[in-house]
Structure formats: C-alpha cells, structure tokens
Design a protein that fits this description.
heterodimer; A: alpha+beta; Double-stranded beta-helix; 5 helices; 14 strands; B: alpha+beta; 4-stranded antiparallel β-sheet; about 50% helix
Chain lengths: ~240, ~300
C-alpha cells in the first residue's frame, strides 16, 4: 500500500490516510452513480471533488467571463441578482430546468454543488435516460443562444448530449418551442434532491445529460447558500 | 442600438448550414400556419445559404465578393479581421459555382428560384411563383438535396424525422417528372421523324424541320453519340466543363514529339440531326441513359504556356 505524504514529503499520519481512502471510495461510488443515473450525492466537500478532479485531469471552468471557477450561489430577488443571470429573470421563483454553461461553445461536463447545511428549496433533476426524451426536436429545433455579447444559432441536442437553458436560448421554430414546452412540463415530475443534511454534502451532476433547477425560495427561509464548481473532462483522444 | 456581435466568421460553413436549417424549418413547420408563398420564400433563402455552406466548406474564399481592394477575400483568407463588412457573392454566382462543383446541380433551375424570390420580395408580385405547390417542391428538393449532400449531411439530418418522408416523396416525384419528360421528348422526336419519313409534314412544321437540322449549341467540346430516340449515330453530346486533363506525348520522328491533352468533359447537351431530338440538361441526359461525361482532345496551348527556352 502506498503511503501518502504531505506537500513537504513527510508521511501523513495513519488516520489521515484512512480518511483519505474512505473519501476516495465514497467519491468512486458517487462517480459510478453519476454515470448510471446522471447525478449523485456524497458526504464531502468541494475540496474532495477538486482533489479527485486534479487526479482525473478534470479542468475547472468559469461560467461567466472574468468570474472565478468557484461560484457562491445565493437565493436573490430579481433586483438583487446580477444582470443577465437566471436569478435576474426568476428572482426567488422556481428556476427552469437548465444546463449550466449552455451559452458556452461547449458546456461543462460535470457540475458540483456543495452545501454545508440544510435548505428548504430543493434542486430538481431531470436526466435524459428516459424514453420520452424528445431527441428529434432537440436535434432539429434551432435556438438563438446569447451570452450577452455573442449570438449564434444552435440545436439543444448534440449527439446524446443536451445543452438547454431557456434564459439564454430563444426558441426560433416549432421544434425548439416544443423543446421548451417539454422541459417546462418535465420540471413537475423531475427528481427532487432535498438539501436536508446538516453536514457537508456534494451533489454531482452530469451536466451534458442531466438538467437541474432550483425550486422557489420562500423569502422567509433562512439564507440559501451553495457553492459550485464546473468541470470539463479531458477530451477523448 | 449596437448590432449583435457575430460569434464566428460570417463565412463559417457550420453556421451557414445551421441558418439554412432554421429557414427550412420555417418552410416546413406546421405552426404557425404559413401560405405556400411564405414557405417557398423561406425555402429559397435556405437554398442560397445551403449553397454558401457547401462552397465555404471547401474554402471560404468561394463565397467572398472579389471587390477592388480584395477586402472580402483577405478576410475570408484570414489575413484581416474585417468580419463586420464582409460581403458574400450573389445568389446566381453561388449557384453557378455549385453547378460546377457539385454535379448534377442545376444552376439555371436554382437561379429561377432566386429570381422568383427577388420578384416576390422587391416587386408588387402577389405570389412567389406561378408553378403549383405540388410541382414546386419536387424541383426545390432536387436542388437542395445535392447541396445537403455536399455539406456531408443527409436529408434527415437537415429536415428532421418529421419531414423526411414528404421530402423523399417529392424527390421521387421529381425523378418521375424527369423520366416522363425524357419519355415525352423521345416519343415526340420519333413521331416527327416518322411523319417526315412518311411525307406527312406540311407548312410550318416542315419548314421548321428543314431549318433545324443542326441543333448543336457550339459548346467547346463535342463527341458523336447514338440518339436515344431514333438510334442513329447522328447525335452529338456537347459540354464546356473540363473535369480532368491528362497530358500525352507521342514520338512522331527521331526528335519530334506530338503532345496533346486528353480531356474528360462533363456533358450538358445532346442533339440529333436525324430526328431533331434535344435533351438540354444533365438530368435529362442521365434519364435517357446518355453518358454524363466524354473524352475529348485538347490543345496544351489552351491550358499551359509554351515551353520555356533559352533562345
């Protein structure tokens, strides 16, 4: 068994190694679930995810020009939200199912959301594994995608991947309008991930086939705070 | 208001194809309800974008307007960054280039669609075309499917599963139309020849017959061919599009060589001086079973400079 060493080359205590091995096992299990189900949770922190990302050569990406790769997500009213954000459109209301980074040429592959306490507003998750995914419309409907400065036409479907965010994608034709209607109705039956733990928890999302959305937040609720990192996997050679 | 910043160069083939897809969706979508004129308008716009996408896929230079200062060519070549004022070539030029590059694309048929579009957009014309809708779509898809193929896509990728059956039916109808037209032209030629041979021709019909023995166009290259109507060897295939060349040398004396070029020429036109049968497009030649290309001899002087010498 390989003995772990700290950055100065000194062997780490045995109990640290046990913890480390446990974390590796937990993340491995979560990644397996992520592949099968499109999303997964585990007890841990973004640091655990970042450690795994370094080893797997995942690259953290910012979702907005000039932003850091780690984002603090707070529930904000439309007035408080940054301009041209989802919250600036929905405020504290329910967000639509969306892909993070759908406005980018290539959206990130994995999104990690981390919380350190419980929240009343759940995160809805919808995965394209179901037979009812409207692939024809996803591959035929044209959207105009805007990142604020750049406009371009895109399909929401790219092979078996999906990139959809109605806040930055305007449906241009009948097929794309059907896609919008489909995801509006899919919200109702989407899985609800409840942030009910009082210990650190991470939700991993396969961002290319699972759409997510925050439920409406009651202004009387305690402040909701999640931390997010998005990653791109290394390109297959 | 500041215009939106384009995400990629305006000559980008994938972006042109994406926009062609959007416009064909407008032409085919059931909702909102659109008249045939509006559908044909969107389809005609899509056809031009398809042509540009197909050409640009080979080289963006093929769709840049070659103006005096070369601004568009320089931008398309990546030597300048002037995307905002980039201008593409006219639709008729697009289609002429597509006809040369993507056989058997019929540029004249495509130009007629572009002219209908221009008349509909820029004049008081109250309808897109006098051609009935059922006859227009087969002609449109006969053109569009060649350009979709030139973009390395199939028709289903372009129109989606919901519309592929109607598009394939239109293409089958177009082939039937071509076959019927060839059949009609051949039968009419046979009939005329029979009437002439039987001495039944009179008046204007006889005058026209006698004045039309030579129906060749005078294109640069020609070869004799057997007429599909009367079977005589008095037919002529013509063309002006050289597909390939091969240099040949033959020693004719101790120190003298004869040099010539063997050309492969795309056939465009057939006429027969015996029965006066005329087939004036590649589609008709194909349907009649005539060769789509033929060999011809060319003079190297027409293609190359004379040999350099130190004299």
């Amino acid at each position: 068994m390989v003995r772990l060493r700290d950055p100065n080359g000194r062997p780490v205590p045995a109990y640290c190694q046990i913890i480390r091995n446990t974390v590796v096992r937990v993340i491995g299990k979560a990644l397996s679930a992520l592949t099968q189900r499109g999303w997964a949770t585990f007890d841990g922190t973004l640091e655990d995810v970042s450690n795994h990302a370094r080893k797997s050569e995942w690259r953290a990406v910012a979702l907005r020009r000039g932003d850091k790769v780690i984002s603090d997500l707070h529930a904000l009213t439309a007035g408080e939200a940054r301009p041209n954000s989802i919250s600036s459109r929905t405020g504290l209301g329910a967000q639509p199912l969306h892909t993070d980074g759908a406005h980018l040429d290539t959206p990130p592959d994995i999104v990690a959301l981390a919380s350190t306490c419980s929240h009343r507003a759940s995160t809805r998750l919808w995965t394209s594994s179901g037979a009812n995914t409207p692939w024809d419309e996803l591959h035929q409907g044209v959207f105009r995608v805007s990142d604020g400065m750049v406009h371009r036409y895109r399909f929401a479907g790219d092979g078996d991947s999906i990139g959809f965010d109605p806040c930055c994608m305007t449906p241009m034709d009948e097929s794309s309008r059907r896609v919008v209607r489909f995801f509006m109705s899919a919200y109702e039956t989407a899985y609800r991930h409840q942030w009910s733990r009082y210990t650190p928890e991470v939700l991993l999302i396969d961002n290319r086939r699972t759409l997510h959305a925050r439920e409406a937040v009651d202004p009387a609720d305690p402040p909701r705070h999640l931390i997010r990192i998005a990653f791109r996997r290394p390109e297959a050679t | 208001m500041t215009p939106p910043v384009p995400s990629s160069p305006p000559w980008n083939s994938d972006e042109l194809l994406m926009k062609a897809t959007l416009f064909i969706n407008y032409a085919l979508d059931e909702e909102p309800e659109r008249t045939f004129d509006e559908r044909a308008l969107w389809a005609s716009l899509s056809l031009e974008l398809l042509g540009k996408a197909a050409l640009s896929r080979a080289s963006p230079l093929l769709i840049a307007t070659p103006n005096e200062d070369g601004r568009n060519l320089l931008a398309a070549a990546g030597l300048t960054d002037d995307q905002a004022t980039f201008k593409t070539i006219a639709a008729s030029t697009v289609f002429k280039r597509c006809a040369l590059a993507f056989k058997p694309f019929n540029d004249q048929a495509a130009i007629r669609i572009a002219e209908s579009r221009n008349a509909y957009l820029h004049s008081a014309a109250a309808s897109f075309t006098p051609i009935p809708e059922a006859a227009w779509w087969p002609r449109f898809w006969a053109l569009a499917h060649i350009l979709v193929n030139a973009c390395d896509r199939d028709l289903e990728q372009f129109v989606g599963r919901a519309h592929i059956r109607s598009v394939e039916e239109a293409l089958a109808q177009n082939q039937r139309n071509i076959d019927e037209r060839v059949h009609m032209l051949i039968e009419r030629a046979k009939q005329r020849l029979a009437r002439y041979a039987a001495g039944e021709m009179r008046g204007a019909e006889l005058r026209d017959w006698e004045h039309s023995a030579d129906l060749t166009l005078g294109l640069p290259y020609a070869m004799p061919a057997t007429c599909p109507a009367c079977g005589a060897d008095e037919g002529t295939l013509e063309g002006d599009d050289v597909i390939s060349t091969e240099m040949h040398h033959e020693k004719v004396s101790e120190d003298d060589y004869d040099t010539w070029l063997q050309l492969e020429v795309g056939a465009d036109y057939f006429s027969c001086s015996n029965c006066r049968c005329v087939l004036d497009s590649l589609e008709l030649l194909q349907a009649a079973g005539l060769a789509e290309s033929f060999e011809a001899h060319g003079d190297p002087a027409d293609f190359y400079e004379p040999d350099y010498g130190n004299d």
